[in-house]
Amino acid sequence: MSERLFHLAEAPFQAARRIAALAPGHRAGRLHGHSFSARALAELPPGWGGFDGAETEALDVLLKRVIDPLDYADLNAHLPLPTDASLAVWLRTRLGNALQAPAAIAQVGIQSTADQGVELVDGEAPGDDQRVYWWRRFELEAAHRLVNVPADHPCGRMHGHGFAVRLLVALDRSSDQGPIDDAASGQIGESGALGDAQLDALWAPLHERLDHRCLNDVPGLENPTSERLAHWLWERLKPQLPALAQVSVYETATAGCHYDGQTYRIWKEMRFESALRLRNAPDGDARRRLHGHSYRLRLHLTAPLDEVLGWTVDYGDVKRLFKPVYDELDHHELNELEQLSDPSAANLALWIREQVVGSLPQVDRLELTERKGRGVLLSWDAVAPSNGKPRLPL
Ligand SMILES: Nc1nc2c(c(=O)[nH]1)N=C([C@H](O)[C@H](O)COP(=O)(O)OP(=O)(O)OP(=O)(O)O)CN2
């Protein structure tokens, strides 16, 4: 079991840019602006940031400081070609300089709109190549019912969702697709392969087949679980888009499925409201006082597909099996939990892991944020080691 704990931070920034290298007439060639979001995942030694438990907030403060020069700025004054990918490289370099070993960045991301962004992922081992992934998100409104669920299961009734689908595309830096800095605002490779217009064109016929339809009527989707839909999309897109790395189906606001052509990974998200004090914080530090957070917890599970039910593990079962743990967390003071030393985000994630491994052995990753974008990601990959494949963004 390879356990890894990453601290997560997020920093919004507002900025203007012009991507001059795009095809004539491309709208991003004109001066325009975005509400960007920068994200970082880093492994930090305990105590980094002042005391044991301060790491997550310290990373958040550092990320905001590093991003600050870009806030309310003209990005072309900082970078010749301020694409999402080159902003990610800019961020990776500056954050790397600001962090010192043994602290280590695992990933940085730049999101330029609600529907588009780039993730720059460091290799697993020193010397491994960094990889850049571009993602784009699409929406569809559809009805469905799950055909093989027990008679009293609510998803057996006809119902519907505003689904979102995220396509993750790998940019191979060593190929002729051009260096990482060439990838323009989500477009892959100025030198060639694929731009947002091409990806939208690949998506359009699929959208036409799925949107404002009953998914059960679509050939191949007779039992349209998130898993089946992710697989169906993969099968249709991959031959035309060899760089496709993952399809993610967001079925509800709290549940969905990733599929990478091999492995299904589902998630179920919950929120809980808790009080805490960090006793490790020094005298006078506000975090020593009783305070509270609105936590968001995302459990990730890896499991084989049940061919009859068409899913891996029922989202409803994840929620039900987690309920006893949830009840200990929600509307409670975390310092009162047994065997939780001091309820920092990292310690709390480790505590939750101990509570779920018995009842939900398929859980191999959990993401816990104490406020938007700030928290930890604990991964132990007990069920599905990466088998030497390049790591997908976390
Ligand atoms: N592994 C899967 N489990 C379930 C799927 C699925 O596609 N794959 N689908 C369903 C239902 O279609 C359902 O609409 C979504 O389930 P769930 O998350 O349980 O929905 P809730 O509205 O109850 O969500 P809460 O946010 O927890 O209230 C069921 N399972």
TrEMBL record:
Transmembrane segments: none annotated. One of its GO terms (molecular function) is metal ion binding. The keyword Metal-binding applies. Keywords: Lyase, Metal-binding, Zinc. Pathway: Purine metabolism; 7-cyano-7-deazaguanine biosynthesis. It catalyses: 7,8-dihydroneopterin 3'-triphosphate + H2O = 6-carboxy-5,6,7,8-tetrahydropterin + triphosphate + acetaldehyde + 2 H(+). Its cofactor is Zn(2+). Its EC number is 4.1.2.50. It comes from the Bacteria. Belongs to the PTPS family. QueD subfamily. PANTHER family: 6-PYRUVOYL TETRAHYDROBIOPTERIN SYNTHASE (PTHR12589:SF7), PYRUVOYL TETRAHYDROBIOPTERIN SYNTHASE (PTHR12589). This is 6-carboxy-5,6,7,8-tetrahydropterin synthase. It comes from Halochromatium glycolicum.
